[in-house]
Amino acid sequence: MKKEIKVNSAEKVKDQALAYLNDNYSDSFKPVGLEFKSWAYDYDTITFKSKKYNNQSLHVYRKKADGKYTFSDDYFKLQMNDEANQYFENLAKPILGDVVTKVSFENHERPAKLGNYSSFSDYLKEGDILLELYVFSPNISEATSKDQYEAFVNELIKNKISLPVYFIKVNSNSESVVESSSLEDLLDSASDLFLERKGYDIKTDFSIEEYKLRKYSSGGDS
What we know:
Layout: H1 2-24, E1 29-35, E2 44-50, E3 56-65, E4 68-73, H2 76-96, E5 100-105, H3 120-126, E6 131-137, H4 142-158, E7 164-170, H5 175-180, H6 183-188, H7 190-193, E8 194-202, E9 208-210, E10 214-217, E11 220-221
């Protein structure tokens, strides 16, 4: 009986979350996972796949307050991803040459000041910027490109963008993989694709912390 109640409850939560998504976005969504709230998190997390964005994952969060359920989501990460990557690529190429840029949105959910169809430009103007930026190329390295790294960091500061940025030298035969793969998949394949990684953290006061160079070798990193 308890198992049946739990199954019914899970289906109800998924249905509610799906109705919430359908009311807010023009897309087709498939539920693929559910985690009920626990001692660590005071909300339920329902994971969906987006048809519009090639079965990439998004999350809906259901939280109860004053006897009522509220919903929020991180769909904006899929909506803004291409625009964000292109924005940083346009900044990087005049300085670093032919590179591929990919961002990771670190916001848990859509920033409160953004609407359901806000752009990445709106995200930058809104101010609640939580990003990590990765710049990939087989033609960069700390030995040959450090001046360009620093010039690009200064360009980000000029545009009032604070974030960690990582410059990653990749194997020369992996360019097509870098372009076509998600950032998550690239990071999971770091030991096979990466040769070195150099990072800088631009703080909110626009001071800079420089990270130690990290080198990779075949079959693992050092």
